[in-house]
């Protein structure tokens, strides 16, 4: 009986271990099934479309876009995977990218980070933009920017700064939230002792980070006003024609209410 129990226990551990290994194995084995296409407007003013072929002659997970007449300035990528519909590549899988913007291309290369439905990085792919035809391999062309070796993504977590300031723009305090690639969060204005939100209404702001590491905004600003220690309410006593008879007042403290009776 003990032998049977031990065998069952071993089989359960083995099954769990295999389940943990499957996602990583799938990510490596089926990468070439990724569908990558792009559209752009050429110098002739016409719309063009291209399906990027995978470069399967080496070990790198790469796709090649060949533009004999010159790489366009702006393209829109369309990305999907038949076996991983929950993967995302940026905030949306139809991304318009300015290829001339600083830092977008490294040696004509663009690394995309795939994230699952929970925002976890699961795979990365390198896109090449060139005037040359598709080579047999790109292993010797991959820019070694990633700390984990050729072809690996350099996208890391990033922080969104939260500035809490008064109505004159003077900082009260600083906070931050950390975003993972493909993640979005709702940042709510926090309550501060002695302060109330400008306009007496708390705000919430949505912040996000796409699969390329771009933040929707890198700073969120919330403005506050000082809560006065006490305020006076004026009581005007007047006759029927509106002529003042006398003026009185009552003092209220924050959070206090009073019923004022006509004297």
Write up what this structure looks like.
This protein is mainly β. The chain has one helix at 2-29, and strands spanning 35-41, 47-51, 54-55, 62-66, 74-80, 94-98, 109-115, 121-130, 158-166, 171-179, 184-188, 195-197, 204-208, 219-226, 231-238, 244-252. The strands form five sheets. Strands 2-1-5-6 form a four-stranded antiparallel β-sheet, with no helix packed on it. The relative contact order is 0.11.
Give descriptors for this structure.
263 residues; four-stranded antiparallel beta sheet; mainly beta; 1 helix; four-stranded mixed beta sheet
Describe the structure concisely.
The chain has 263 residues and is mostly beta strands. It has one helix at residues 2-29; strands at residues 35-41, 47-51, 54-55, 62-66, 74-80, 94-98, 109-115, 121-130, 158-166, 171-179, 184-188, 195-197, 204-208, 219-226, 231-238, 244-252.
Topology summary:
Layout: H1 2-29, E1 35-41, E2 47-51, E3 54-55, E4 62-66, E5 74-80, E6 94-98, E7 109-115, E8 121-130, E9 158-166, E10 171-179, E11 184-188, E12 195-197, E13 204-208, E14 219-226, E15 231-238, E16 244-252
Parallel strand pairs: 4-8, 9-14
Antiparallel strand pairs: 1-2, 1-5, 3-4, 5-6, 7-8, 9-10, 11-13, 12-14, 15-16
């Amino acid at each position: 009986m003990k032998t049977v129990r031990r065998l069952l226990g071993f089989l359960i551990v083995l099954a769990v271990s295999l389940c943990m290994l499957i996602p990583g194995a799938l990510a490596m084995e089926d990468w070439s099934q990724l569908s990558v296409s792009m559209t752009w407007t050429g110098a002739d003013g016409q719309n063009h479309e291209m399906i990027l072929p995978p470069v399967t002659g080496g070990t790198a997970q790469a796709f090649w876009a060949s533009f004999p007449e010159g790489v366009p300035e702006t393209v829109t990528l369309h990305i999907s995977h038949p076996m991983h519909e929950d993967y995302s590549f940026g905030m949306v899988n139809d991304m318009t990218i300015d290829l001339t913007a600083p830092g977008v291309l490294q040696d004509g290369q663009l690394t995309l980070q795939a994230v699952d439905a929970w925002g976890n990085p699961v795979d990365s792919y390198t896109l090449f933009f060139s005037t040359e035809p598709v080579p047999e391999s790109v292993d010797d062309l991959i820019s070694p920017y990633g700390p984990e070796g050729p072809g690996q993504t350099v996208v890391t977590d990033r922080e969104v700064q939260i500035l809490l300031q008064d109505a004159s723009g003077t900082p009260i305090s600083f906070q931050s939230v950390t975003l993972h690639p493909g993640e979005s969060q709702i940042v709510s204005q926090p309550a501060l002792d002695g302060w109330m939100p400008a306009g007496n209404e708390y705000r919430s702001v949505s912040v996000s980070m796409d699969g390329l590491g771009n933040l929707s905004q890198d700073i969120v600003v919330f403005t506050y006003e000082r809560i006065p220690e006490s305020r006076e309410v004026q009581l005007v006593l007047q006759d029927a024609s509106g002529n003042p008879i006398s003026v009185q007042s009552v003092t209220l403290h924050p959070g206090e209410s009073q019923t004022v009776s006509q004297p």
